[in-house]
Amino acid sequence: MTLLMSHYNYWIVVALMMVGFFIVIAQGNLVKKIVGLNIFQTSVFILYISAGKIHGGSAPILNDSITVYSNPLPHVLILTAIVVGIATTALGLALVIRINKAYGTIEESEIQQRDHSC
Amino acid sequence: MLFATAIGIVLSRDLIAVVMLTGIYGFLSASFFVLMDAVDVAFTEAAVGAGISPLLMLLTLAMVGRREKASRSRNFFALMLVVITGALLMIGTFGMPAFGSANAPAHMHVAPRYIEQSGTEIGIPNIVTSVLASYRGFDTFGEVAVIFTAGIGVLSLLMLKPAQRKAPLSNVAKHHKVLRIVSKILIPPILLFALYVQFHGDYGPGGGFQAGVIFAAGIILYTMFFGVDVAQQVVSSAVLRVLAAFGVLLYGSVGLVSMLNGGEFLNYSVLAENPLTGQHIGILVIELGVGITVAAVMVMIFYCFAGQQNKKEEAEE
Amino acid sequence: MLSHLPILQVILPLLGAPACLILGRGKIAWLFALLVSALSFCIAAMLLHTVYHQGVISYALGGWQAPWGIEYRIDLLNAWLLLIVSGSSTVALLAAQSSINVEIAPEKQTIFFVAWLLCLAGLLGILATGDAFNVFVFLEVSSLSTYTLISLGPHRQSLWAAFRYLIMGTIGATFILIGIGLMYIMTGTLNMQDLAQRLPLASDSSTVFTAYAFILVGISLKLALFPLHLWLPNAYNHAPSIVTTFLAASATKVALYLLIRFTYTVFPSHFSQIDIPLEEIFIVLGITGVLSASVAAIYQADVKRAIAYSSVAQIGYMVVGLGIGGVLGLQATLLHVFNHALMKATLFMALAAIACRIGVTTLTSMQGLGRKMPWTSFGFVVGGLSLIGVPLTAGFISKWYLVSAAALSGRWGLVVLIMVGSLLAIVYIWRVVEALYFKPAADSTPIKEAPLAMLLALWLLVFANVYFGIDTRLPVSISAEAATALQEGRP
């Protein structure tokens, strides 16, 4: 039981990750896939940041009145990861627009059909 | 709440609803980050997840349509895969230290030095900025490269040919006088706020990336109401490319100057007589480089996406 | 300046990319990119020389010592790979301008070279760093630029291939990120050497096992290890021909490097042997990849696609070598990394030349080209011989080592299967040779030989294939030393 209480945060994050992962692989619409990818990545960020939190700590900005700070390293890593995420999203969406122009659709099944019939 | 939003996204068929939910998801994440004391991250996630991401998605939807078609064929296999992966991850969390514990290995080894020494070694209050810009400055250099790469990628895919730029464009906003006037009033403060965030990043949440995004938001606001045409006369695509490249080069040159002064790449302590001053100068300049590239690339990406909309409208006329 | 070599290796192309964007107009972009790549190659050669004679090089970025700062750490393994990647980039760039004149619109050519330099910088950055998170950042730099390069291909399938690779690649990168995060949570550090010391203390926990599993899966996606290889045939087939040449010789090698690095240097390897039969998994997946991909290659109508499947097969060989383990197995893998880069670059370069002249690479359209494009065709033949593993070519050397390693470890069934793989390769190479030389041309349109730059690049590679098949001192000694060093690093 104590395991549940201390770790439930992490489990919810895992569940979120899996929802995102599911959207990416199961759903056929390309924009939704990218959304799923976003959710997947954001959940990973939540995992990292949760790991950095210390009970009773505060934001890692130096201040004489504070003694306990939360861990700044995960914050740094996630800032970079967020940027990487948006870069991927932008590129992915640009590809979707071009694919739509070339194939006339953004559903995975239809694209594969059109490729096979060519 | 986050979970409910995510499920909503899975089930919804209307893509615009999906985008809205994505924005909400981003916003909720940002709030969560605040609760976790990660204020810089919250700031960035709010700008990205509730700002840029939905914006770009909406622009895409304007081109591709808002409805999703039903297809149930691969769901079982995908569900199995997801369950297995999730279970593996869950097992993985058993070994992790309890949430919020102060004795976790993550807090015992590398991090304490940042917290204890960054005041004396670097001299700025925001520890995240210290780590981001100095201790792990090379990662941030890579991050700028990532943004630049994304800009290049979008440019290669959606580049506007010169002919299209001169075409007259349908502009719904011309009819909304109120919006135009309000946006004209809002834009200067937005740009100023961006500059504030840029330079205040040492003392509070903020820094190059967030500032770049806000600055870009100001320009994008202008573009939305006055049209890509007009905006391009103010800030043209060619200028944006040069600026995007310039930001990266600026960052790199700081590193090169360090090397010329006898230190390693990106060692700011050798940039001035007093190491602390050197650190401040180094951080200031590289953050500026980040801000310039981010702003330029964001606007460039927006031009590319919005320009597609114009092409489509021309084709339809 | 010499002490700064490790970082110069990466920032030269990394800063070269934006500079190229500003400078770029037509031929200047190409020449600049070629210059940058050639300089990178020289730096890599110098680094290899230094590491070989003086041992591991460590460079503390920002002046902060690891693990508080990011460390660049060059040992024999990554110096070897730095040479291979920068070398293949330079040779491919030599032929690039002629090739893309046919396949890419003029206004996008500058962007092409900028993306190329970014890709090069990303790959070199992954190789040179000693920090796990830094790997992730540069992995994404190289991945995003790769998606861009692929999408510049001439067909609409290029866009779809790029998108599928984007999805699968990002999933892989995110898995790796999860693994890195879990490792950090258990140890508090990101530096690879530091992790190697601290992970054994936590090795009984399920978290470390999960971390390794996720990193393994993430890397396997990028590596195109069976069964996660689905993105590769399409991506290689529809990318601009010269991009395929570069990628085939470099991108998957870098993923293999990561696999080796994480398995041998970071994770307590004794734990991976005890808990899960990792070696067996590698061998099984590897050989399955070899056989299934080789069979698939035989049935392809498009030669470029067939050779792409062949790449999946070759990666399988490399992983088999890892599975066999020991100094000999590792050495076989490292040798094959080098030789595969050579042979694939040759094959794809020849195909690029053909595509340059006739626009397509289907088997039927290539009939009779043996007479019209003699130099190119013969280049393909030599590459093919190397692929099969004929003596006097580089490919023979690595096949020999692989078979020896398998035999010495008593896995005779494996030896047979490896030979079967070679036999299958003979089939699909023969189909091309038959079309080139023994079938009459479909029509009598005159087709010129490939442009000079491409021929030059091609025959440079052909020469290297034969040279290293005969004088094997350099690759063998380096791979032997690197393998030994890796083995010694194990507890």
UniProtKB/TrEMBL annotation, chain A:
The keyword Cell membrane applies. It is found in: Cell membrane. This is Na+/H+ antiporter subunit C. Keywords: Cell membrane, Membrane, Transmembrane, Transmembrane helix. InterPro entries: CPA3_antiporter_subunitC, NUOK/Mnh_C1-like. Coiled coil: none annotated. It comes from Zhongshania aliphaticivorans. Belongs to the CPA3 antiporters (TC 2.A.63) subunit C family. The chain crosses the membrane at residues 6-25, 37-56, 76-97. The keyword Transmembrane helix applies. It comes from the Bacteria. PANTHER family: ANTIPORTER SUBUNIT MNHC2-RELATED (PTHR34583:SF2). It is a multi-pass membrane protein. It holds the Pfam family Oxidored_q2. GO terms for cellular component: plasma membrane.
